[in-house]
Amino acid sequence: MRTLIVHNLKSGFGSNAVFEFERALLRDGDEVTLRALPEEGGAREAVCDAEDFDLVVVSGGDGTVTNLLFELRDRDVLTCIFPSGTANLLFANLGSAPEPSAIAHACRLGRSVHTDLGVMRWTDEDGRPREHGFGIMAGTGFDAQLMRAAVPNKKSMGEAAYFAAALSNIHPDIIHFDITVDGRHYERDAIACIVANNAMIQGEIEVVPNSTMTDGKLDVILLETSDAVQLLRPIFAGMVDKSGNSVGRPYLEQFTGETIEVNSSKPIPMQTDGEVIPGLVSSYVAQVIPAANKLIVDPLSRYEPDDGGTEGFGGTETVAFPEI
């Protein structure tokens, strides 16, 4: 078994656990190549020869992982996400066991699922066309402001940095959004317009119901409130009803489609999977990339494996996982 591990040394609290994973993964005769990402960029170069390996492991936070998955899109490369960041929401959405030895075990079993990605396209302030992939959520407005404000404290405070940022700006600007979803036109006033590939956040709370990364669609989520404190209501609703199918989500409106065009009444910040994009934007197009990546999952994942339970790479005992 030949494995490529691409790791962000600057990732969050779980950064060193990838080396424990590496020890659990290897068997006699295996080969492993470990590549550390540079301070900026480097994703494309790190996986340029991914097809030469049996398995590629992408290790870092959500931003790092998504950047690597975007470079691996439509290449049919068996890929494992290793959660080394602060929130690790993309891995959490898969629902696999997070322990390094459990992830190594899943890699040797080789079960996988094809998952979607999203891509944002816009023109920057210098008039240059830009694009950026996302695996969880991307958006403009209050969410991007929170990400920008949280950056200085993420290392020391972890996820709490986002809550501290929210409390520092409890009256965000109301923006007028002109939105087209697969040809259907909407106009709304909101503090943020978010496009989601999947919408489960911390605590296994679904921001909107029935959002998955295997349906070939994206979800548009509008935060329709003038007071950030009012966002506690959908959070509390999520604690009572994690799926969102019973209680619903007050102050949130949802649309679903494959291509989304968004124009805002003024230039505002943008974020993709927690990474703040430099400058401001006033319009963008988001599109889904169906079945873009082939991701390792274990039999307890919320996503059914698509390989029928093949023998994988061997070197592991058969485990009788309980039925979901």
TrEMBL record:
The keyword Nucleotide-binding applies. GO terms for molecular function: ATP binding; kinase activity. Coiled coil: none annotated. One of its GO terms (cellular component) is plasma membrane. Residues 1-124 form the DAGKc domain. GO terms for biological process: phospholipid biosynthetic process. CDD domains: GATase1 (cd01653). Keywords: ATP-binding, Kinase, Lipid biosynthesis, Lipid metabolism, Nucleotide-binding, Phospholipid biosynthesis, Phospholipid metabolism, Transferase. SUPFAM superfamilies: NAD kinase/diacylglycerol kinase-like. InterPro entries: ATP-NAD_kinase_N (IPR017438), Diacylglycerol_kinase_cat_dom (IPR001206), Lipid_Phosphate_FormReg (IPR050187), NAD/diacylglycerol_kinase_sf (IPR016064), YegS/DAGK_C (IPR045540). Pfam families: DAGK_cat, YegS_C. Belongs to the diacylglycerol/lipid kinase family. This is Diacylglycerol kinase. It comes from Olsenella porci.
